Sequence to fold (648 residues):
Amino acid sequence: MSEEKKNYGADSIQSLEGMEHVRKRPSMYIGDVGVRGLHHLVYEVVDNSIDEALAGYCDEIKVIIHQDNSITVSDNGRGIPVDHHKKEGVSALEVVMTKIGAGGKFDKDSYKVSGGLHGVGVSCVNALSTKLRAEVYRSGKVWEQEYEIGKALYPVREIGDSDLTGTLVTFTPDASIFEATEYNYDTLSSRLRELAFLNKGITLTITDERHQDEEGNFITETFHSETGLKEFVRYIDANREPLIEEVIYVEGERNGVPVEVAMVYNTSFNENLHSYVNNINTHEGGTHLSGFRRGLTNTLKKYADSSGMLDKLKFEISGDDFREGLSAVISVKVAEPQFEGQTKTKLGNREVTASVSQAVSEMLAHYLEEHPNDARKIVQKVILAAQARHAARKAREMVQRKTVMSGSGLPGKLADCSEKDPSICELFLVEGDSAGGTAKQGRDRNFQAIMPLRGKILNVEKAMQHKIFDNEEIKNIYTALGVSLGTEEDSKALNIDKLRYHKIVIMCDADVDGSHIETLILTFLFRHMKELIEKGYVYIATPPLYLVKKGSKQTYAWNDQERDALIKDLKGSASESSVTVQRYKGLGEMNAEQLWDTTMNPEYRTLRRVTIENAAESDHIFSMLMGDDVPPRRAFIEANAKYANIDV
Ligand code: 0RA
Fold:
């Protein structure tokens, strides 16, 4: 056997093993086999097209969700090569589609920056699909190849002529691997929107063939941005009031690292930084974010010092103070990114700090020089933030002192559980004292604690820090949970070492008011206890909407379809008594036993876990829901799914 043949044999065995390994241990490649992993398949395929676009050969990417939840991703790039691949003995297309880790290997010069969180390549998608079909438009011809669970059914074949170029991939996720196979339109569309902002000039389209509008057209959206991150921060801040006129923006290479940064100040008190490496949201930050902070603090501090505005200030300004009311997006492209941290979303490459810091210093110094009015407004805001931080520290000390002093230290309104192991304890945050009372009667007091919340809790989106920690309901939530607030250096740090419950369940009425309160609580948790959401500790209870009764027989329904099916069922049964339907508007309409049966009993209830799929999108939505602009909020709450992109 020639050396080449031997290698080919060994390689192809290796490749088969690779594909089998993907099916055996899918989580190693795509994170998990739940909803997240399912959507990851689409991102993986789209990322390949994004790479082709970043290489300068493609400007259109289309995603279609078909009726059966199969997915098509197409682009107008060069088309994956179909010629014979010498080393592998099959077409290049087949190598890309069936060999783990092959993607684009034979094109060394391509600057591959995309590639998903795991960057595993389209072959993984193939391995996890019952069917996949690739269609390539290239050199005047159309080619195709089909696969089943990653195995080619035949060698690539020519099926026609075409002047077009590009690649089209259709795949059906394997239902024996994935826990769920239904795609969420909002999840995919917000990722495509994000990609459009992050990669200006590319047009991304999504079509959902499962749903039609009134005119019978499929739901479809197109995303395209000419100004990239500039538009992205505007989108994130759409419902906040700007403090300065323009978006401060820089784009360019520093020490070989492509850097793009956009920032604005608004009149709120929140800091909203979103950072990306190779189009991946780096939730845990890292060296690029440090670089941004360093550049911002140094430049602003220098300007503020020389302006003389700080002369009367009696205390030091901290890094936090420069970022109150700041929204920014930082995007870098790194050839060999080192990802660290718990969720591998923290950039470790040291050299990137200086690149970003330099870029930010230059752009900001320039902006401040050219916009003296804006510069003054920013420095004034920084001073205000420093003063508020001092006031907040006093309020925080009050919260902590109170905890130490009052007996158990727990709020009077909390009906605690007897169990002490946090991993089995649940805290229900319940809308209103009346429903709180019912929940106290209905609960299992061993592991379920109840805390009623008075009507509307404070809108933290608009309040200043010291107001937030002055608020009775919010203080109660901190003490009940057993979490404490940050240290002096980092007032936003949350200490959850003594967290008393690993399930925090928001339980509100199933009406407009209830959904507003739920959003207020979620906003508070999102802004001030994000870690609890990230750890998967926050849930939303789902009380039923209807009680369908016939004689002594009664059943609950959680939506209109269930209700109608029950009515049909009961009407069909023999006895003559009529079917009645009771619509539950509030938790208060249920008695303790009903509330336990439907909403609190772990055996029957459905809890929806709150996750942050897309932090920038959540930020946009929370500011929209809680901002000044009331009309869009009403429209959103009433017309939309309550949780939109806070995927639950
Ligand atoms: C490597 C080389 C060439 C194209 C591609 C990869 C390519 C891959 C994908 C994946 C999705 N869409 C894509 N489009 C292109 C072409 C090299 C050449 O033409 O010389």
